[in-house]
Amino acid sequence: MDFKEQLRSQVDIVQTIGEYVKLKRTGASGRYVGLCPFHQEKTPSFSVNQDRQFFKCFGCGKGGDIFNFLMEIEAVTFFEALKMLAERNGIPLPRRSDHADAESKLRAALLEMHRIAAEMFQSALRSPQGAEARAYLEKRGVSQEMIETFGLGYAEPKGQALVRRLAQEPFSPEELEASRLIARRDDGSHYDFFRGRLMFPIHNESGKVIAFGGRALRDQDNPKYLNSPETPVYRKSSVLYNVHRAREAMRRSNRAILVEGYMDVIGVFAAGIKEVVAPCGTSFTPAQCRILHRLTDGHTVVVNFDPDNAGANAAEKAVQLLLDESLHVRVLALDGELDPDEFIKQRGAAAYVKSLEAAPTYFHWLADRARAKFDMRTSDGRVDAFKFLLPSVQKIGDKLERAAIANDLAGYLGVEQGMVLDQFKKAAAERRAPTPAAADPGPGIPALERMLIQALISSEAARIQTLPHLADEVIGNFAAREIFLALRNAHQSDPKATFSAIEARLSSSARDLLHHIASADESIDDVQAQEQARACLRRIESDFRKRRIDDLRARGKTAEREGRMEEALGIIAEIERLRRELGRAGT
Predict the structure, then answer these.
(1) How many folded domains does the chain comprise?
(2) Cα(266)–Cα(278) distance, rounded to whole angstroms?
(3) What is the CATH number of the domain that holds 463?
(4) Which pLDDT tens digit goes with each residue over 155-212?
(5) Residue 74 burial by Cβ neighbours in a 10 Å radius (0-12, 13-18, 19+)
(6) Is residue 491 situated within a structural domain?
(7) 438 domain-assigned
(8) Are 510 and 449 in contact (CB under 8 A)?
(9) How far apart, in whole angstroms, are the C-alpha atoms of residue 210 and residue 115?
């Protein structure tokens, strides 16, 4: 058994995927369902089969084993997924660096450089050179515990410290430049990208440092925040600050707090609210929204952005993205025009928690935004304000709740009830416009073939009894011939062949089809599988003989017309033999 198979056999796919997706067991079989992390959906179509160790989404079609899942969700290569899974489960990797391809080796080098940089920045913050940064943190009320929890550091101002440190390691010039931790001057020399700044390490969901945010300590230093450029391990639109610390709290509470900046995250976290995250130097994105959907199981996100105009505009855009993802949204606008960190420092953690628990749904916050945008003294302005709110109202799934909120908002804005009804009718007519039918996630094959495949993958005894009777000419007529050939070949190599050994022989399309069949709700035991296989085989053999008879009849008529009587008589004899076999089979 190679290391990949050994690792797959030792790791529970449900436990691993459960770290990313909230799964619920369904039925007596080892099948779990949840909201797909790879596309937007309101009802679960994502299935994990514990017995056969694979996942399948019937909505977007993605599927595979635990390695495919990690490669997709973490955006890593196969070797990185292998290494990640082994490390998480305390299983030592074979000492063979040639397993890694060039991309994996580069990404491993980048992660190591970021780890070294984080340690170096933390050490510099503790040194005499970090006095200014420590004074800033003390002024902002950041405790030593939070400094250590978040791994805060300091980039020395001279601009060569990290260059010299990384030069001590066996990194190639191409790897050093790809890290974007250092930059090249026109004369070819290198310097540190971050200089004289308070450093915030940014982690991926696995807790690896992949980037940094650097805050200026002097007013004359611009920009105020300097963030890492994108690299092969860092895509800022797909990362949330603090997500690796927050995700367990999100799962437990089914809630996320979305704030605007690094210091806000630290302040809220220090107040005891662990499920807090922020974008990483960019506007809130759909990819970040999907992360929150996945980790909160599609429940509540509280948006608590800064109170200034830029923060309100950013909050409005974030609310729309969250609603598109079918999340429950609340908006927390703090008293005193304070951002979260300032509010907690001035009013205390208990006051923040109280405000958080009382955060209203987004409707009235948006309504206040609408009142500020439009001239509410005119009927046209009031109607425009309601139209501004209508798309958000239409995203409410429950019809009665939608109507009640629409009427409530109309009253709040001073809009007549008749106009509300007219707007709903217009929107409903637009929604009734024909839309393209969704593609069948599992290409159709005859039910008989599906039932036989289900039996064969469920029982070794069924394979022993059935596969020898499936001749090449029989399999050649199957729509799912590739799966049957893989079943037969895997069985010939090893009668105890695992599900993964079978799917490893398939093309991606045939593998998707096998997953679709294996994910069916029906669960059969060994005895049922044997009986089902025998019944399918009898029907298949009967159908084959009937097709053979039809072919022979056509050939016999041609032979008669052309005067080849001896050949025609032989065909008639063969037809009679096949009919007798059909009679003995009872068909």
Answers:
(1) 5
(2) 10
(3) 1.10.860
(4) 999 889 999 999 999 999 999 999 999 999 888 889 999 999 999 999 998 899 999 9
(5) middle
(6) yes
(7) no
(8) no
(9) 8
250 close to 212: Cβ distance less than 8 angstroms:
no
**What is the CB-side half-sphere exposure of residue 304 using CA atoms within 13 A?**
36
Q: Which domain holds residue 548?
A: 447-584
Which letter does DSSP use for residue 396 in this model? -
- Return d(Cα 440, Cα 443) in angstroms, integer: 6
Domain boundary among 332, 360, 388: 360
Q: For residues 249 and 228, what is the distance between their CA atoms, to the nearest angstrom?
A: 27
Residue 431: burial class (beta carbons within 10 Å; 0-12, 13-18, 19+): exposed
Helices 102-126 and 78-88: crossing angle, nearest 10°?
50
Q: Report the CATH number that the domain containing residue 61 is assigned in CATH.
A: 3.90.580.10
User: How, if at all, do strands 54-57 and 63-64 pair?
Assistant: antiparallel
Is the Cβ–Cβ distance between 32 and 50 less than 8 Å? yes
Asked if 224 and 136 sit in the same domain, the reply is: yes
Q: What is the dihedral of CA 91, 96, 99, 101, to 10 degrees?
A: 120
3-state DSSP assignment of residue 500: helix
Instruction: Give phi and psi for 241, each to the nearest 5.
Output: -65, 130
Which of residues 99, 119, 138 is at a domain's end? 99
Task: Tell me the C-alpha distance between 463 and 459, whole Å.
Answer: 7
The CATH code of the domain that includes 280 is: 3.40.1360.10
Same structural domain, 454 and 517: yes
Query: Does the residue 439 lie in any domain?
Result: no
Residues 6 or more apart from 393 whose CB is under 8 A from it? 363, 402, 405, 406, 409
For residues 222 and 258, membership in a common domain is answered with: no
Is residue 437, in this structure, part of any structural domain at all?
Answer: no
- The Cα–Cα gap between 356 and 369 comes to 20
**Quick one: 494 and 507 in the same domain?**
yes
Question: Is the domain of 287 the same as that of 341?
Answer: yes
Q: How many CB atoms are closer than 10 A to CB 453?
A: 24
User: Cβ distance 402 to 393 under 8 Å?
Assistant: yes
pTM of the model: 0.71
Let me know whether 82 and 163 are in one domain: no
CA distances from 342 to 389, 426, 508, 526 (A): 31, 45, 53, 64
DSSP 297: T
Q: Render each residue's pLDDT in the chain as its tens digit; 587 residues.
A: 467 777 887 888 998 998 888 888 886 567 889 888 888 787 888 999 888 888 988 888 888 889 999 988 888 888 888 888 888 888 887 765 445 578 888 988 999 999 999 999 999 999 999 999 999 999 999 999 999 999 999 999 988 999 999 999 999 999 999 999 999 988 888 999 999 999 999 999 889 999 999 999 988 888 999 999 999 999 999 999 999 999 999 988 989 999 999 999 999 999 999 999 999 988 999 889 988 988 887 789 999 999 888 999 999 999 999 988 888 999 999 988 899 999 999 999 999 999 999 998 898 888 888 888 899 888 888 888 888 888 888 777 677 777 888 888 888 888 877 777 677 667 666 655 544 444 444 456 788 888 888 888 888 888 898 888 887 877 887 888 888 888 888 888 888 877 877 887 888 788 888 888 887 655 667 888 888 888 888 888 777 777 777 777 788 788 778 788 888 788 788 778 767 766 665 55
